[in-house]
Amino acid sequence: MTAFFVFIANVNLLFMLQLIDTHAHLYSGKFDSDRQEMVQRAIAAGVVRMYLPNIDSTSIEGMLALEIAFPAHCFAMMGLHPSSVQPDTYLEELKIVEKWLGERAWAGIGETGIDLYWDKTTLDIQQKAFARQCEWAKDLQRPIIIHSREANREALDVVKNAQDGRLRGIFHCFSGSLEEAKEMIDLGFMLGIGGTLTYPKSELPTILRNIPLQYIVLETDAPYLPPAPNRGKRNESAFIRFTAEALSEAKVLPLAEIARTTTANALQMFA
Q1: Is the pTM of this model over 0.85?
Q2: Which CATH superfamily is domain 3-269 in?
């Protein structure tokens, strides 16, 4: 079989597989010109579910509109992003999150966590906001979606303090050492793997070879972090196939097994 026909066979296989995007900001203004078409492209590419993490009070309306438009495919979560934790507003923002959590069921809590890339001065209130959302996740028995940018140690410390056997979730956009990955897994969490796996200088392929597939879920973080074939462009859920292919190569496992297991992992997490 020629290389061309091998490529076509792999593409056809991929589009027959079911994938889940566990983290996508599809309500972002970057999709205003073609949001409906973008979601349809993902569905056509075999992405059967897209989980939508909240940012703050400004993102709720757009997130819920997507859920209404695509009830079988888009699933909203509720939380406060660490970059939106600001001294003058975060307590009111948390009240809004708490109000919404009491009004309906949500797929998960988040995204929350700690971000020290943009602002280190708010670490103390980020920790407080994160810890409170951990308590809500436990009380509501929902997974928590953790954003940890240049803050794995700080985020892990909050999780350790909150963990009483009820806390579970995903460390979104995992970037860290093998030791940190194992610590997250030991605490009851899965690793969210996205487009950074495809980057030439990424250390993720080496790390993930040592992580059982049962602890991995796929994500895009759309419109951010597009995979290598589309770097510099807007990311979207349909592009999750590039991450699935990169994970298949890194773990030397059939693409069908990558799709089947990561999809099952996601369904288990959000059950």
Answers
A1: yes
A2: Metal-dependent hydrolases (3.20.20.140)
